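Anyone up for a design puzzle?
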């Protein structure tokens, strides 16, 4: 079975790590994967190529028709049985009606977009989701939410997962950032867009600054809000304690140094950060959105705060600093999720089951 994965270069974080896991877990199956990255203006980093064990093609649309013809040509040349579209909500109107003509069956992976993308979908997004043979959601809440605004056929829920091995030979992130070895680091990762609500996290740093000066925020990721967030941090005089380091394939090895990993998104899906934190063995702190509440319980396997409540978020971070036993307890209980709902084997098996089901229909 041939599967072509269509991946937007604007979301290289979570999808890359999950795709890498999917490729490694399905290496013993009779599946022929090929990867097709597309973008309007970005090139694929070399670090991504070395991180993925599959043939890779890239398309940059230097003009609408030329880019889409090249995109369609690349898909046709791979002769896929299934075209797997990651994050279809990023498809724009110019993609409408071109990709589906390659003849492959279509599977869409929704990821964790801001709810507005589902509530107010683009024409291309609606087109491909409604014509998909199967749509994969990251939570039951997201699946039910999408049913209100999109006509969806077959669908299933697959929680995100990640897996990496801890190493004693890793980079010293404090030394790289030039900060004290006794400082506490909190992390955030993802595409820098309004839906991630990172301004709430930055404001919580302003609150924390009034009680302690040894907490640093490291943000892994890139996106249209980068300059806005940097300017916001500058206005609050926080640039010495907030570090925007871009996205890197090896960020997982660095996240192990963090006190916790934080997601401020109030979307209905489950953030890939949840799987990253669980795999890295650090606490997960998150806005208590509906999807998050399917897996996480405040004070048991995570710390939750009200969406948009920066004061509550600051309190969660300070509690982790003050109470080391709290962190250990959260990590211990979260391990059960890593073995069940967020299990790498379950993640891969669920995808493989979908691919085989769609191919045999």
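Challenge accepted. My sequence:
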């Amino acid at each position: 079975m041939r599967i072509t994965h269509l991946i937007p270069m604007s979301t290289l974080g979570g999808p890359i790590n999950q795709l890498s896991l999917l490729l490694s877990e399905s290496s013993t199956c009779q599946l022929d994967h090929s990867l097709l990255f597309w973008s309007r203006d970005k090139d694929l980093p070399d670090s991504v190529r070395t991180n993925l064990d599959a043939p890779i093609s890239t398309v940059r649309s230097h003009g609408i028709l030329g880019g889409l013809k090249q995109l369609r040509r690349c898909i046709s040349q791979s002769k896929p049985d299934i075209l797997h579209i990651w994050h279809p909500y990023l498809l724009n109107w110019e993609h409408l009606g071109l990709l589906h003509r390659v003849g492959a069956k279509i599977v869409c992976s929704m990821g964790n977009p801001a709810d507005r993308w589902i509530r107010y979908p683009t024409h291309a997004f609606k087109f491909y989701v409604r014509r998909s043979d199967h749509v994969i959601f990251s939570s039951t809440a997201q699946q039910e939410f999408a049913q209100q605004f999109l006509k969806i056929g077959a669908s299933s829920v697959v929680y995100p997962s990640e897996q990496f091995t801890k190493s004693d030979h890793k980079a010293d992130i404090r030394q790289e950032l030039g900060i004290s070895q006794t400082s506490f680091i909190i992390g955030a990762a993802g595409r820098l867009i309004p839906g991630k609500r990172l301004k709430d996290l930055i404001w919580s740093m302003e609150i924390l600054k009034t009680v302690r000066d040894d907490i640093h925020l490291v943000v892994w990721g890139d996106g249209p809000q980068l300059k806005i967030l940097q300017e916001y941090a500058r206005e609050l005089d926080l640039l010495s304690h907030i570090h925007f380091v871009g996205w890197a394939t090896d960020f997982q090895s660095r996240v192990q140094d963090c006190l916790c990993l934080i997601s401020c998104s109030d979307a209905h899906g489950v953030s890939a950060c949840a799987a990253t934190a669980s795999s890295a063995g650090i606490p997960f702190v998150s806005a208590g959105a509906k999807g998050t509440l399917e897996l996480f319980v405040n004070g048991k396997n995570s710390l939750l705060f009200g969406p948009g409540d920066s004061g509550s978020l600051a309190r969660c971070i300070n509690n982790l600093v003050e109470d080391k036993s709290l962190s250990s307890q959260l990590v211990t209980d979260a391990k059960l999720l890593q073995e069940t709902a967020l299990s790498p084997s379950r993640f891969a098996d669920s995808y493989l089951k979908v691919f085989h089901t769609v191919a045999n229909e």
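A detail worth pointing out: The mean pLDDT is 87.
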